[in-house]
Design a protein that fits this description.
- This protein folds into 3 domains: about 120 residues, NadA-like (Rossmann fold); about 120 residues, Rossmann fold (3-Layer(aba) Sandwich); about 80 residues, NadA-like (Rossmann fold, 3-Layer(aba) Sandwich).
- The longest helix is centred in the first third of the chain and has 15 residues.
- The radius of gyration is 21 Å and the shape is globular.
- It has about 350 residues and is α/β, with parallel strands linked by helices.
Length: about 350
């Protein structure tokens, strides 16, 4: 009998960790270059140890697409990442996701129907003065919408550059789906908070405080459920207990948290800062717990902790576990493909336009 949610035989859940490790390694050795496994930084240790490359979502999709000898890309991440991999993959490559329940709450906060309705209303308010931009943490349909309307994708690493470019194209920016990355980026570029508005897709209305004509940035009302759990009181408590501690957070955190931190940057930026930190220095990190724990293990000469001591790992990222990875790989070895991610050609075409626009910016 199969697991009614994932299709995985229950025997995989009861197998020992050591047995599953050997089975995964065996398939990797047998399939060789025909198989490529990208693993996102937020994955469990039991999974990331088998990754052929570890990194951020877009970086992994790009790396995977360059593995021309790989027929199968088994993406250890979440759904939107596997979609991006399929968009960039060659025609001969198939992208699989070990557990189809591995989604992203942020990406799910902006569906294409809501976006198209919102865009129509914003056009009525502002005319043809808005350029849409989307974080790569979004569905293929949203990326395609942005590409079709002349916009670009952004990552947390290059958001500043893309937002600067956007204002050379149009008077206003429509930033999806994470309001906090959009707000933090625009603020760092000198745009006052009072010139930012929030589009509420549920109420279908624009929330703003000052004059409508002064709105420069329209932020989609979405957020990362992990990074929303880092709060001002966590920083205040740590500062009081140990003023020497360094606090670094991801820009998906709220404006208030970023403002009170010592530094903020992408996952890669955080990893680079920690890897170059002075021996014996103390760090509180505001990002996903699997990564924080991995950094703690990798750099024992530093004192590392989570900014929020009660944080749990990202629940949807943790859907990808060793049993699901073993099941997908052993099925593949036997010639059965489960959980293939396929983005249709039209959606892929316009989504690729948005991605390439970002990648060609100097």
């Amino acid at each position: 009998m199969l697991d009614f949610q994932t299709g995985m035989p229950p025997a995989y859940k009861t197998a020992s960790i050591e047995d599953l490790k050997m089975r995964v390694q065996s398939v990797k050795e047998k399939m060789g270059d025909r198989l490529f496994i990208p693993g996102h930084h937020y994955q469990r240790d039991e999974v990331i140890q088998f990754a052929d490359a570890a990194g951020d979502s877009l970086q992994l999709a790009q790396v995977a697409s360059k593995q021309h000898q790989a027929e199968f890309i088994v993406f250890c991440g979440v759904h939107f990442m596997a979609e991006t991999a399929d968009i960039l993959a060659g025609d001969h490559q198939k992208v699989l996701l070990p557990d189809m329940r591995a989604g992203c709450s942020m990406a799910d906060m902006a569906d294409i129907s809501q976006t198209e309705r919102g865009w129509k209303q914003l056009q009525q308010l502002f005319g043809d003065t808005i350029l849409p931009v989307t974080y790569v943490n979004s569905t293929a349909a949203i990326k395609s919408f942005v590409g079709k309307n002349g916009g670009a994708t952004v990552t947390s690493s290059n958001a500043r550059k893309v937002v600067q470019w956007s204002f050379t194209q149009k008077e206003r920016l429509f930033f999806l789906p994470d309001q906090h990355l959009g707000r933090n980026t625009a603020y760092d570029l000198g745009i006052p908070l009072e010139n930012m508005a929030i589009w509420d897709p549920i109420q279908e209305k624009l929330e703003y405080q000052e004059n409508l004509e002064d709105v420069k940035v329209i932020l989609w009302k979405g957020h990362c459920s992990v990074h929303m759990n880092f709060r001002v009181e966590h920083i205040q408590k740590l500062r009081k207990e140990d003023p020497s501690i360094n606090i670094i957070v991801h820009p998906e955190c709220t404006r208030e948290v970023v403002a009170l931190s010592d530094d903020a940057g992408s996952t890669k930026y955080i990893i680079d800062v920690i890897s170059n930190a002075e021996k014996g220095s103390k760090w509180a990190i505001g990002t996903e717990m699997n990564l924080v724990n991995r950094l703690k293990q990798s750099y024992p000469e530093l004192e590392i902790q989570s900014l929020n001591p009660t944080m749990c790992p990202c629940l949807t990222m943790n859907r990808i576990d060793l049993p699901h990875l073993a099941w997908i790989l052993e099925s593949l070895e036997k010639g059965t493909i489960y959980n293939q991610i396929i983005v249709d050609r039209t959606t892929s075409f316009y989504a690729k336009e948005a991605l390439h626009k970002m990648l060609t910016l100097k």
